[in-house]
UniProtKB/TrEMBL annotation:
Lineage per the UniProt record: Bacteria, Pseudomonadati, Pseudomonadota, Gammaproteobacteria, Oceanospirillales
PANTHER family: OROTIDINE 5'-PHOSPHATE DECARBOXYLASE
Record's function text: Catalyzes the decarboxylation of orotidine 5'-monophosphate (OMP) to uridine 5'-monophosphate (UMP).
Record's protein name: Orotidine 5'-phosphate decarboxylase
Enzyme class: lyase
Gene3D superfamilies in the cross-refs: Aldolase class I
Organism: Halomonas saccharevitans
Catalysed reaction equations from the record: orotidine 5'-phosphate + H(+) = UMP + CO2
A Pfam entry, by short name: OMPdecase
Subunit structure and binding partners: Homodimer.
UniProt-listed SMART domains: OMPdecase
Residues holding substrate: 12, 34, 61-70, 120, 181, 190, 210-211
Family of the protein in this entry: Belongs to the OMP decarboxylase family. Type 1 subfamily.
Pathway(s) per entry: Pyrimidine metabolism; UMP biosynthesis via de novo pathway; UMP from orotate: step 2/2
Active site: K63
């Protein structure tokens, strides 16, 4: 089932059972789901089958980053399992991204392919330690333009950069934004954050929300509060 909601709930759980327990409280008409490294490493493709069987569209967030041939094969494997969206690291470069896109096109696979720019947990100091002296917002812009030119359908960025990327890359370019923190939630390890309403107003096309919902005392109440905030926009 497809949904008009911009919300993607991150199922960051250590077991298939725990993830499905949460999925069974959610409704595919109200959100999409994201499967990341921890859950996929524990459960393998079974989790995708289980979520698809429950009617959810799934973002497989494995952030592939390797040589072009390897990434193209991994993206093809993900798309053949029917995921709605898959991603690579833009830092893998133009040839890697082009190879991934070309592989999808060659096999007629319509999965959305996006690229991670700068992780939302990183700030200027973190970038500087890995040899990037450019400020985060500028680095995001550089990688987003490269991603667009390499055939990506959009990027993962912080909502703080969404507005500028709409100007740079066009309104149809997807801005998938983790780093969503409602006023009631702690930032934790995230650094470049925004509230759901501010992210919506900034032009985020999809909002990834994990712990503010999954670790809330009452996850359904937390989700409803986020939906109410978005409805005000
Ligand atoms: O830059 C990025 C890329 C991916 N993520 C993922 O999004 C969720 C966010 O979860 P929260 O609990 O809401 O912080 C998580 O699965 C990350 O792996 C990201 O945060 N930043």
């Amino acid at each position: 089932m497809s949904t008009a909601s911009p919300l993607i709930i991150a199922l960051d759980y250590a077991s298939l059972d725990a993830a499905l327990c949460m999925a069974d409280r959610l409704d595919p008409s109200r959100c999409r789901l994201k499967v990341g490294k921890e859950l996929f490493t524990r459960s393998g493709p079974d989790i995708l089958e289980a979520l698809h069987g429950r009617g959810f569209e799934v973002f497989l967030d494995l952030k592939f980053h390797d040589i072009p041939n390897t990434v193209a094969g991994a993206v093809q494997a993900a798309a053949e399992q029917g995921v709605w969206m898959v991603n690579v690291h833009a830092g893998g470069g133009r040839r890697m991204m082009e190879a991934a896109r070309e592989r999808l096109d060659r096999h007629g696979l319509s999965t959305h392919l996006i690229a991670v720019t700068v992780l939302t947990s990183m700030e200027a100091e973190d970038l500087s330690e890995v040899g990037v002296s450019t400020p985060p917002a500028e680095q995001v812009e550089r990688l987003a333009v490269l991603a667009r030119d390499s055939g990506m359908h959009g990027v993962v960025c912080s909502p703080q950069e969404a507005n500028r990327l709409t100007t740079l890359c066009g309104p149809d370019f997807l801005k998938v934004t983790p780093g969503i923190r409602p006023s009631f939630a702690a930032a934790g390890d995230q650094r470049r954050v925004m509230t759901p309403l501010d992210a919506l107003r900034a032009g985020s096309t999809h909002q990834v929300v994990g712990r503010p919902v999954t670790q809330a005392e009452d996850p359904m109440a937390a989700l409803a509060a986020i939906e109410a905030e978005l409805a005000a926009g």
